[in-house]
Amino acid sequence: MEPLPDPAPLATKLRNTLLRYHGIPDGEWRLARRAKDATVWRKPSEEFSGYLYKAQGVVEDVTNRIVDHIRPGPSRLDWDSLMTTMDIMETFEENCCVMRYTTAGQLWNIVAPREFVDFSYTTSYEDGLLTCGVSLDYGEARPNFVRGFNHPCGWFCVPLKDCPSHSLLTGYIQTELRGMLPQSAVDSAMSSTLANFYSDLKKALKP
């Protein structure tokens, strides 16, 4: 089993990678899906043979509450229909941990359930927050699950300048599902999963 990495340099590298993604010009993205709650774009990933996805939408709540629902913790399992289990394996600081989680099958189970082990880090960004993660090759995969791999991913959440009670949530996701899967099925699943993520999150945040 690989040892856990030193969290400080990994957190710095992860944050810098997400900041670089956040600075990619609009012209490099191609529209993948436009839904009521979010718009999703994609471009070829620099990390693997799939796509880097960008999702963006306005969420009617304050930044801290939104990020508390997204980052590792009990709130996430309550509303994220894709996530079936989550365990915090190691906590380094309040804002930094390693978690293992499993996801449900998708597309009539063409995409079988997956397991991930991710390093997660939450930090400040402008007037809001960035919560980000990357998979680690750590621990034995559970039986009946394919071990997937998240290349650097993250969510920027900042209050709207003219309406601070609403936030702009921008996500960057590049998931390598692994296993024997047609790429077209993966791409179809990713766009709709990201759009559904916003609508599920909005329902969970309603008072």
From TrEMBL:
It comes from the Eukaryota. GO terms for molecular function: cholesterol binding; cholesterol transfer activity. One of its GO terms (cellular component) is cytosol. Residues 29-207 form the START domain. GO terms for biological process: cholesterol import; cholesterol transport involved in cholesterol storage; intracellular cholesterol transport. PANTHER family: STAR-RELATED LIPID TRANSFER PROTEIN 4. This is STAR4 protein. It comes from Centropus bengalensis. The lineage of its organism: Eukaryota, Metazoa, Chordata, Craniata, Vertebrata. The gene is Stard4.
